[in-house]
């Protein structure tokens, strides 16, 4: 089949509002959107401007982020058979989970306001609308994993938590063995699967497979793991007439749409973490460092690249194809405008700037 050229979404930036705590504390706003994809950071000894495909300031709605980031086009490309990924990156408490999922307080019995729904739910609606418009010829299923302290766990499987093995093969690349894949046909069904992976209290109940969150000085609901929700999309081949023997003339297409909610980078001194929280923070930071190293090497021209160390962490192994392979990837960099978070904000913006130079071959 001929290779089809398609757009590659560039990194986008979202600036959250100052929190009530930051305002009461007297934190200064040091990040400002200049329009046309430019964001300016201005503070003592720091004055820098960064350019991206889109910058969403504190007043941007969830709908504006969905439409302006290229997320709708990513859904359509996944339906067309491409491997698509969107991941949110940034400091803990910068709004990553809110951008992807909306308010944490939502549940099946108390859903969030439609205006506050995140990229995930809006993508599900878009995907199911497309399925209905095509006469329901799409077979949809989902898997949901978390990486907690370098162990991969299935957020959908019943029973006590258990680590799943990560394998590699020439045909599939890196894959998780024995993960559960659940079919769905409605918005209610996929949102139910999504909410199964969210826990509102910490520590989670004994035997819970739900995602780990904890409270610390910077975030009351800090994600302590990386979560990957993957939608598998298969276009059912239309059956040819019985007299038509060349069934290969009506092939099916298989695409994926993966949402990656990364745990936030954090400094133990700032969060006041100790004990188990400190161990979790070190594990999170090591995996994010490995991810940043891979992105830095991938940003170099192809002729000057050295070996890409995907095997340095479980996270980079699972994202190998999305980062530098045959996938199409959108990065949403979430940042705080607070002067107290200046160092982490600059780090996130430099990170996204490097990711902007990475190209794949879909």
Automatic annotation (TrEMBL):
Which InterPro entries did the record assign? Kinesin-like_fam, Kinesin_motor_CS, Kinesin_motor_dom, Kinesin_motor_dom_sf, P-loop_NTPase
What are the boundaries of the region Disordered?
Answer: 202-223
Record domain Kinesin motor: where? 8-358
What keywords sit in the KW lines? Answer: ATP-binding, Cytoplasm, Cytoskeleton, Microtubule, Motor protein, Nucleotide-binding
Give an example GO molecular function.
Answer: microtubule motor activity
Q: Name one Pfam family in it.
A: Kinesin
Highest rank taxon of the organism: Eukaryota
Q: Where in the cell is it found?
A: Cytoplasm, Cytoskeleton
Please state the protein's primary subcellular location: cytoplasm
* Gene3D superfamilies in the cross-refs: Kinesin motor domain
Asked whether the keyword Transmembrane helix is assigned, the reply is no
The UniProt transmembrane annotation reads none
Gene Ontology biological-process annotations: microtubule-based movement; mitotic spindle organization; spindle elongation
**Binding residue positions for ATP:** 90-97
Query: From start to end residue, where is composition biased (Basic residues)?
Result: 209-223
One GO cellular component term, please give it.
Answer: microtubule associated complex
Q: Which family does it belong to?
A: Belongs to the TRAFAC class myosin-kinesin ATPase superfamily. Kinesin family.
Q: Which PANTHER family match?
A: CHROMOSOME-ASSOCIATED KINESIN KIF4A-RELATED, KINESIN-LIKE PROTEIN
Q: What is this protein called?
A: Kinesin-like protein
Q: Which organism is it from?
A: Poecile atricapillus
């Amino acid at each position: 089949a001929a290779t089809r050229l398609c757009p590659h979404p560039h990194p986008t930036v979202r600036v959250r509002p100052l929190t009530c705590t930051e305002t009461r504390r007297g934190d200064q706003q040091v990040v400002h959107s200049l329009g046309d994809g430019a964001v300016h950071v201005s503070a003592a000894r720091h004055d820098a401007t960064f350019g991206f495909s889109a910058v969403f300031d504190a007043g941007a709605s969830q709908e504006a982020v969905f439409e302006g980031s290229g997320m709708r086009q990513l859904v359509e490309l996944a339906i067309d058979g491409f491997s698509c990924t969107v991941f949110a990156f940034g400091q803990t408490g910068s709004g990553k989970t809110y951008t992807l999922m909306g308010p944490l307080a939502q549940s099946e019995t108390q859903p969030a306001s439609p205006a506050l729904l995140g990229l995930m739910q809006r993508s599900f609606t878009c995907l199911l609308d497309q399925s209905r418009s095509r006469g329901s010829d799409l077979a949809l299923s989902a898997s949901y994993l978390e990486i907690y302290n370098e162990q991969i766990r299935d957020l959908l499987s019943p029973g006590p938590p258990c680590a799943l093995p990560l394998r590699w093969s020439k045909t599939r690349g890196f894959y998780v063995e024995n993960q559960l894949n659940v079919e769905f046909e409605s918005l209610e069904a996929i949102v139910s699967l999504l909410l199964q992976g969210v826990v509102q209290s910490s520590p989670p109940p004994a035997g819970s497979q739900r995602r780990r969150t904890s409270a610390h000085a910077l975030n009351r609901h800090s994600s302590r793991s990386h979560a990957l929700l993957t939608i598998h999309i298969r276009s059912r081949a239309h059956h040819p007439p019985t007299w038509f023997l060349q069934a290969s003339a009506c092939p099916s297409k298989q695409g994926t749409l993966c949402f990656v909610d990364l745990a936030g980078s954090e400094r133990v001194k700032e969060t006041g973490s100790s004990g188990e929280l400190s161990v979790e923070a070190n594990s999170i930071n090591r995996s994010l460092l490995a991810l940043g190293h891979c992105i830095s090497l991938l940003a170099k021209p192809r002729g000057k690249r050295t070996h890409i160390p995907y095997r340095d962490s479980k996270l980079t192994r699972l994202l190998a194809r999305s980062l530098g392979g045959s996938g199409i990837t959108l990065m949403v960099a979430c940042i705080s405008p607070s002067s107290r978070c200046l160092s982490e904000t600059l780090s996130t913006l430099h990170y996204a700037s490097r990711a902007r130079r990475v190209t794949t071959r879909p």
